[in-house]
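chain below, 58 aa
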Amino acid sequence: MGWIERWTQEDRGRFRAGIVRARHRLADSGLFCDPALEELIETHPRERLDIAMMDEAG
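prediction:
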């Protein structure tokens, strides 16, 4: 069981070549909780930092 659902060979081929939409469970991973995001923002090199946010609807 992976974090991304129904990831196909076609999706793999399109990855990094364009936009690929996929259902996922990454919100359950702990990677995006406030403390984890705070640590990432504080430790990532400032010159390589770019932050984009979404509203609750995604």
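Residues 9-48 form one domain. The first helix runs from residue 9 to 14.
thats it, cya
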